[in-house]
Amino acid sequence: MKYVTKPVAPTVPIPEEVVPTPVTCKMFEDIPTEYIPSIFDDVVELLVEEGDIKIWRAQEIIKTMQQRKEIAVPEDEMAELKPGFPCSYGKVILLGEHAVVYGTQAVAAPINLAMQAKVWSNANGVHLIIPRWGVEEKIQRGADHKYSIYKSLDMILEKLNLRDQGMKIEVVPHIPRAMGLGGSAALAVAIIRALDEHFELKLGEDEINKLAFESELLVHGSASGIDNTLATYGKFILYKKGDPPFMQEVTIKDRIPIVIGITGVESLTAKMVSGVRKAWEKNKSLYERIFSEIDELSGQAVKALEKNDLQQLGELMNVNQGLLNALQVSSQDLEVLIDIARRNGALGAKLTGAGGGGAMVAICPDCADRVALAMRKAGYKAMVTEIG
Ligand code: PMV
Question: Fewer CB within 10 Å of terminal CB in the chain, N or C?
Answer without folding.
Answer: N
